Amino acid sequence: MAVVHRLLPTSVSSVPGAPSGPVPDGVSDAELERLYDYPAGLTRPWVQVNFVSSADGAVSVSDRSEGLSHPADKRIFALGRDLADVILVGAGTAQAEGYRGVRPRELRVERRRRLGLNPLPPIAVVTGSCRVTPDDPIVADTEVSPIVVTTTDAPHHRKADLTAAGIDVIEAGTGTVDPRATLAALAERGLLRVNCEGGPQLFAALVAADAVDQLCLTVAPLLAGAGSQRIAAGIPSPVPRTLRLDSVLHEDGFLMLRYRRADGTGRHEG
Description:
270 residues; alpha/beta; 8 helices
């Protein structure tokens, strides 16, 4: 049965040593961590996808997700980064949202140290044409070097420039990036807790590859109207994937839904 709670502001119990159990009419940071944490003892990549959409299914307002967001949603978004080994994102989303490296917030540093994770997760940028440069903020403004996932036939000079700048460049597929090859390469680097932050093309590719274990979807109380993409767009899935609703949080009309694949951990191995 899904857990349904109102989500309280972060300030309620974000300080180390604060009460860790549920608080009246809300959820503590410790309970959120329990709800959203990855399974223990992972032996293969486990993929969580984070998205926000309007009530009528739009993935953005004026080409950005910010117009759909809320402090409660941002709290869940930050938690996803706190608990992950690596953040996976498409180059288009990284550019549109102005991505930079993950910042060492006080709660993040404490949480990751306590859980035995690396101080900060790298961001793995997916780009079939290798359109990331050493001058991009995601490369130049970070404390942890990103990973660039591209293809064998992407321009060699672009890959060489990134490698010379100390960036780990992964070739995963020819023509288009192969999600299974991507996850296998991340696993080789010990990065099993994968937090995907979009965009729609990357999400659709992961769904088609049967590689999604959990979807964290925030639904904003907003009608955006026609014109925006869905949260998944591009490669069609061969068959529908059945999900199980595991938890529901709400705040100011925003719903934060957490779905897991209905067949547990039995997804196809790459």
